[in-house]
TrEMBL record:
Its EC number is 3.6.1.23. The keyword Transmembrane does not apply. It catalyses: dUTP + H2O = dUMP + diphosphate + H(+). Substrate binds at residues 65-67, 78, 82-84. InterPro entries: dUTPase, dUTPase-like, dUTPase-like_sf, dUTPase_trimeric. Keywords: Hydrolase, Magnesium, Metal-binding, Nucleotide metabolism. Residues 16-145 form the dUTPase-like domain. CDD domains: trimeric_dUTPase (cd07557). This is Deoxyuridine 5'-triphosphate nucleotidohydrolase. One of its GO terms (molecular function) is dUTP diphosphatase activity.
Amino acid sequence: MNRISVPVRQLDPGLSLPHYAHAGDAGADLLSAEQFTLEPGERRLIGTGVALALPVGWVGLVHPRSGLAARHGVTVLNAPGTVDAGYRGELKVCLLNTDRDEAVHFERGDRIAQLILQRVDQAEFIPVEELDASDRGADGFGSTGR
Ligand SMILES: O=c1ccn([C@H]2C[C@H](O)[C@@H](COP(=O)(O)OP(=O)(O)OP(=O)(O)O)O2)c(=O)[nH]1
Ligand SMILES: [Mg+2]
C-alpha cells in the first residue's frame, strides 16, 4: 500500500498521532483531545489535537466509526467532513449523538472518527448552452423503480 508523508503538528503533545489500527486500513483513527459527554440528540465540535499539511491534490475525509454508530448511535454530522489540503488549523470532528435516550461519555484519547486520505481533482467549470444526452437524463431523487 502506498504511503504519503503528511506533516503533523501535535497541538496536544500528550495525545497520540492519528493511527491505522491494521496494515491496509483505509481510515486512521482520530482521537478526542477532550473529555466530554454527548447528551441524547446533542452535537458537538471536538478537537483532535492535530493539524496537518496535506499535499495539494489530496483531501482528508472525516468519516464516522461504525462501532460508535452501531453501539451508541454516535455519528459525524457532516460525514464525510472535508479537510482541504490548505487547512492548517486543528482537525475537528462534529459528533452527533442520534440516540434518543442514552448519553455517551468520551475520555481524552478515545477514538472518535477516522480520517481517509484520497486523491482529488478540481474541475474547470465551462458554461455551455446544452449538455450532451445521457441514459439517465434529468431523472433523479428516487426516480428508478417508479
Ligand atoms: O469535519 C471537518 C470538516 C472541516 N474541517 C476543517 C478543514 C476544512 O478545510 C475546513 C472547512 O471545512 P468546510 O469547507 O467543510 O466548511 P465550510 O463551512 O465551507 O467553511 P469554510 O468557509 O471555512 O470553507 O474546516 C475539519 O476540521 N473537520
Ligand atoms: Mg468550505
